[in-house]
Amino acid sequence: MIDEEELLLGVLNTAPLNGGHPEEHLTGERGADLARTLGGTGSPEELEQLRRVRDALQSLIRGRTETLGALQQVMDEVHMVGTVTPGGLSWSLAAPDDVRLAAQVIQAWSAVSQRLPGRLRACANEECNLYLIDHTRPGTAKWCSMATCGNRMKARAHAARRRSRSR
């Protein structure tokens, strides 16, 4: 079973920028394979739901709340089912097949946001469209990857400082 952070980032990071242009990874066979890997059906309808949820969550993470309605539309098709066992009560999500994975992504976003407030964020590189969950002790991680975006941004800052000193 995929954990909630892996599920959330697995969907959020499906529209990376390549040469300044977004690539769409939630379409066709590539998207279907990813959805099945994440526990979904891979159907075109499911991929459409995932794209809608991804876009809404990306906007929300960047501080735009007008996308809450898109998330609510998905959750309106979901209900929770309680199961009583000798060990207690457990709850599971019940939803149509094409909505279930999108609803699980929303659940993962909510859980991560509550457990790690302020730690889910967009990469600080404006030329990147990826997201990260900051697990550093001080909570200061800025980049999706230190090896790519972090190194690139530090090199740019260094070059800018050198240029300003030489003037």
TrEMBL record:
Give the matching InterPro entries: ABATE (IPR010852), ABATE_dom_sf (IPR023286), Znf_CGNR (IPR021005)
Enumerate the spans annotated as Zinc finger CGNR domain. 119-162
| Residues annotated as transmembrane | none
From which domain of life does this come? Answer: Bacteria
Task: Tell me the SUPFAM superfamilies matching this sequence.
Answer: Jann2411-like
Q: Which PANTHER family match?
A: BLL6575 PROTEIN
**Name of the protein this chain belongs to:** Zinc finger CGNR domain-containing protein
